[in-house]
Amino acid sequence: MKLVLLGYMGSGKSSVGKLLSEALQYKFTDLDHYIEMSEGMTISQLFKEKGEIYFRRNEATAMTKIISEEKKIVIATGGGTPCYGTVMDDLLANDEVVTIYLKNSLETLTERLFTEKSERPLITHLKTEVELNDFIRKHLFERSYYYNRASIVLACDGLSPETIVEQLVLKLF
């Protein structure tokens, strides 16, 4: 089984993914980290130097490669991964893949991301929580169609990563 975690940045995909992979004794891959290692530059640099279209194509290719090579894996995607090209359709069409949307409220995402914005190039320019909230609201509106198509949609507000993993294991098995 191949588990693909979806959700907005700050939703806990990497944290939950690591714990879930440990609990299931699966390999863990963070898609952004995988791309950074294979390209030899950060996601920010890729966007800046090669553009978003290049990055999204590379991201889709990397996802296909990882899924074809691994049998038991948990993949933490980037927030925009399922929203471009045929990525979500391809994931849903693969019988070996279970897509999981870690759903968090606008308020939870704003609260988490405001304290982390210096580490996240996409939002460093936003000065206030109101600006960040508006930015996230717009993205969630655009992306929710893709996220909500996931095989499993788990409401995560107020849950610890450990509790999320427990709930996912119950849903998966």
Layout of helices and strands, plus pairs?
Elements: E1 2-6, H1 13-24, E2 27-30, H2 31-39, H3 43-69, E3 73-76, H4 87-93, E4 97-103, H5 106-116, H6 129-147, E5 152-155, H7 161-172
Parallel strand pairs: 1-3, 1-4, 2-3, 4-5
Q: Report the principal-axis shape.
A: globular
Number of folding domains? 1
- CATH fold type: Rossmann fold
Helical residue percent band: 55-70%
Explain what this protein looks like in three dimensions.
This protein is an alpha/beta fold. The chain has one domain: 3-Layer(aba) Sandwich (Rossmann fold). 56% of the residues lie in helices and 14% in strands. It is built from seven helices and five strands; from the N terminus they run E-H-E-H-H-E-H-E-H-H-E-H. Strands 2-3-1-4-5 form a five-stranded parallel β-sheet, with helices on both faces. Helix 1 packs across helix 7 and helix 5 packs across helix 6. The longest helix has 27 residues. It is globular. The termini are close together. The model has no long low-confidence stretch (mean pLDDT 94).
A few lines on this structure:
The protein has helices spanning 13-24, 31-39, 43-69, 87-93, 106-116, 129-147, 161-172; strands at 2-6, 27-30, 73-76, 97-103, 152-155. It is α/β, with parallel strands linked by helices and 173 residues long.
Keywords, separated by commas or semicolons:
14% strand; Rossmann fold; alpha/beta; 5-stranded parallel sheet; 173 residues
